[in-house]
Amino acid sequence: MYRDNTKVVHIGDRVIGGGNPILIQSMTNTRTEDVKATVEQIHRLEAAGCDIIRCTVPTLEAAKAVAEIKKQISIPLVADIHFDYKMAIAAMENGADKIRINPGNIGSKDRIAAVVSCAKERNIPIRVGVNSGSLEKELVEKYHGVTAKGLVESALDKIGIIEDLGYDNMVVSIKSSNVPLCVEAHDLLAKECKYPLHVGITEAGTVYGGNIKSAMGLGIILNKGIGDTIRVSLSGDPVEEIKSAKYILRFLGIRKGGIEVVSCPTCGRTRIDLIGLANQVETMVQSYPLDIKVAVMGCAVNGPGEAKEADIGIAGGDGEGLLIKKGEIIKKVKEDQLLTVLKEELDNWNK
Ligand code: SF4
To answer: Residue 305 and residue 294: Cα distance in Å, rounded?
Structure first.
């Protein structure tokens, strides 16, 4: 697998690359200068399972805020820099654990050299990001449009610039909002690049569409063994990004842990509020550290059979339902007690 052979990179106290577990990232959408709001959001993201957080650093005030924010959080912080190399340096001086730059918009070689020199002194990794929306004009012309080959050439150029400055503590990202293009670019890049890849479908969209797009893109790319850290990017609460990223890793069998809920699509046989029940169960199980599968089925006809694959399940009836374990009916329960009975079972799972 590609990800087993990428370079190991330390981001604060976390490690990616070289076959280490894939880490989940998100980005704050508060003003970084607003320390209180940013810390509050990072705490919510940490609680949801965020491994690494990125904050934009567009001003010196934001760079200084990085130092304050870092004191109050326990996950590594990545400073996202565009255009102004001084912000990259200020962010590192204020304790950023990694910086994300696009060398293409940082300016002259001297400025890139100043950023790399500061990173080298502190051994801070640099994420070199290439985005299909900002692919260089020459590469768009050379490849007759925005293509996977153009994106990869751009990424390799940028890697080369940093390597020529004597630094190889890097993570690389190559993003597009076009799923097939993004997949093709990762296929090509993974063969050429020894650095860990940060994978995401950029500007994926709203919580609904963006989740589907991200699941498709990340699903295909990760399943090929490519990708060392991921971000699902959604126009929504960043906590949704973490939930989705966890689901993607879990459903691909990459990350274990957490309860997986399977539920039936409902049909003419359904006599209970199965959709409401499934949603309640999904919310309820978030807090359990169990690695099991829970089935929520609409009826007793197919329910037990369909729930066989699950460790525990409930199947609706008419005013009542069944508690099922490994496909065996354990007991009948009144409909309004189904959730409570399931909760009791989960509370006592390892007792
Ligand atoms: S489990 Fe029952 S209610 Fe749900 S889809 Fe199957 S047959 Fe219909």
So the answer is: 13
- SS3 (DSSP) at 79: strand
One domain for residues 179 and 61: yes
The mean pLDDT value of the chain amounts to: 94
Residues with CB under 6 A from ligand 1: 264-267, 269-270, 297-299, 301-303, 306
Distance 301 CA to ligand 1 centre (A): 7
DSSP string, 240-284: HHHHHHHHHHHHTTSS--SPEEEE----TT--S-HHHHHHHHHHH
Residue 203 pLDDT exceeds 90: no
- Count up the domains in the chain and report the number: 2
pLDDT of residue 15: 98
Domain final residue, candidates 193, 217, 251: 251
CB count within 10 Å of CB 30 equals 17
Mean pLDDT for 235-253 is: 95
CA of 305 to the centre of ligand 1 (A): 10
Contacts of 302 (CB under 8 A, 6+ apart): 264, 269
pLDDT tens-digit series, residues 127-169: 999 998 889 999 999 999 999 999 999 999 999 999 999 999 9
Question: From the CA of 219, how far away is ligand 1's center (Å)?
Answer: 28
**pLDDT band, very low/low/confident/very high, at 308 (cuts 50, 70, 90):** confident
Structure tokens at 142: 């050379």
CATH code where residue 315 lies: 3.30.413.10
- Flag whether the pTM goes above 0.70: yes
Specify whether the CB–CB gap between 52 and 76 falls below 8 A: yes
Residue-number span of the structural domain to which 333 is assigned: 260-347
Classify the C-alpha dihedral 27-31-32-35 as positive or negative.
negative
**24 in helix, strand or coil?**
strand
Look at residues 251, 282, 312 and tell me which one is the last residue of a structural domain.
251
Is 112:83 a contact under the CB 8 Å cutoff? no
What is the per-residue pLDDT for 257?
82
